[in-house]
């Protein structure tokens, strides 16, 4: 799913979305892609969307994107797709460092806010995977239940 040379969006599985290739993915852009994918799913199923589940998916998307920007050297790719009863959010970055639930020492001293993103992702998402990319960096994929 998060290979270095992503599949052309036209050839992607039904429901797959990929933010337009760019050098500056922002959390708001990724949240918009999640909103659109969930709205499309609800329209297709002719059922109302679970607003709490959507809020969870938006928060996970924001945290993964923000963590890639702050700790991963920048976002290199984003993929959003519906998978069964959930939404899969994949964010790739330039760093090989694995995410951690422990804040760095500066954050523990209170000089910097933060340190809550990864624990939030771990609490709200299911089937979280971290994959190495062939030319360096990693892809974090998290599935958030929509029901």
UniProtKB/TrEMBL annotation:
Pfam families: HATPase_c_2. The keyword Transferase applies. This is ATPase. Residues 91-109 have a biased composition (Basic and acidic residues). It comes from Streptomyces thermospinosisporus. Residues 1-24, 91-116 are annotated as: Disordered. InterPro entries: Anti-sigma-factor_SerPK, HATPase_C_sf, HATPase_dom. CDD domains: HATPase_RsbW-like. Residues 30-142 form the Histidine kinase/HSP90-like ATPase domain. Keywords: Kinase, Serine/threonine-protein kinase, Transferase.
């Amino acid at each position: 799913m998060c290979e270095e040379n992503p599949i052309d969006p036209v050839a992607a599985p039904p429901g797959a979305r990929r933010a337009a290739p760019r050098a500056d993915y922002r959390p708001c852009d990724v949240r918009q892609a999640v909103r659109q994918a969930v709205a499309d799913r609800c329209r297709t199923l002719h059922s109302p969307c679970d607003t709490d589940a959507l809020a969870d998916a938006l928060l996970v998307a924001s945290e993964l994107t923000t963590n890639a920007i702050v700790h991963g050297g920048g976002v290199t790719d984003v993929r959003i797709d519906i998978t069964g009863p959930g939404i899969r959010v994949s964010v790739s970055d330039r760093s090989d460092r694995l995410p951690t639930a422990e804040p760095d020492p500066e954050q523990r001293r209170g000089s910097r806010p933060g340190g809550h993103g990864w624990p939030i992702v771990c609490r709200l998402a299911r089937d979280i995977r971290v994959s190495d990319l062939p030319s360096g960096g990693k892809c974090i994929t998290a599935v958030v239940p929509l029901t």
